[in-house]
Amino acid sequence: MSSQEDTTVFIGGSTGLDLCSETVYSIQGLLLDSIFCGLFQSYQFKTVDIILKEDAEKRYPIYNFDNKKGLWEIEVHALIVLNGKVLITKDEKSILAKYRQEDIKDIYTINRIEAKRKYGSKLGKKGALIINTL
Predict the structure, then answer these.
(1) Where in the sequence is the domain holding 86, given as residue range(s)?
(2) Residue 63: pLDDT band by 50, 70, 90 thresholds?
(3) 1: in domain
(4) Cα separation of 45 and 87, whole Å?
(5) Who's near 65: CB < 8 A, 6+ residues apart?
(6) Residue 20 counted as domain residue
(7) Per residue, what are the HEC states of the chain?
(8) Where on the phi/psi map is residue 120: left (φ > 0), alpha (ψ -120 to 50), or beta?
(9) pLDDT computed for residue 6 by the predictor
(10) Is 28 inside any structural domain?
(11) Is the per-residue pLDDT at 75 higher than 50?
(12) Which of 11-20, 59-68, 114-123 shows the lowest per-residue confidence on average (mean pLDDT)?
C-alpha cells in the first residue's frame, strides 16, 4: 500500500501479519520492533509499504528477522524531531538509519495543537514524532 495522500493505518488490519508481534517497523530507516507497536495503533502516515520477510532481509541485512514475517516501511507525515533537532529534508531524516533500537531512550508523538505551539503553525500542522536517543 502506498499513497500520496494521508493514510490512516490501524495496526492489526487485514494484511495477514500480526503487526504487533510479527513485523518490524522502519521509520525513515530507523528499525523498530514490536515494543513500539503502541505508537502506531492509529496514526496518519504519508506512505506505508508492506515488505515481506525475504525482501526485508535483503533491504536491511543488518537486522535479524528471525520470528518476523515482514516489515512496514513508514514515511511519517508529522514533523520528526531527533534529540531536539527538527529534521525537515530527506537528507536530514536519513540520519535516523544510523541508530538502532537499543539507542532509543524514548519515542512518542505529540498532537497538532501541541506541535504548533512548540514548533510553529507551519512545521507543527501534522503533529510531531519525537525521538530521543541515549
Answers:
(1) 7-133
(2) confident
(3) no
(4) 16
(5) 24, 53, 56, 57, 71
(6) yes
(7) CCCCCCEEEECCCCCCCCCCCCEEEEECCEEECHHHHHHHCEEEEEEEEEEEHHHHHHHCCCCCCCCCCEEEEEEECCEEEECCEEECCHHHHHHHHHCCHHHEEEEEEECHHHHHHHHCCCCCCCCEEEEEEC
(8) left
(9) 39
(10) yes
(11) yes
(12) 11-20
Does residue 121 lie in a domain region? yes
Residues 77, 126 contacting (CB under 8 angstroms): yes
Query: Residue 129 phi/psi, 5° resolution?
Result: -105, 115
Distance of CA 102 to the CA centre of its chain: 15
How many domains does one find in the chain?
A: 1
Are 75 and 84 in contact by the 8 Å Cβ rule? The answer is no
Over 70: is that where the pLDDT of 7 sits?
no
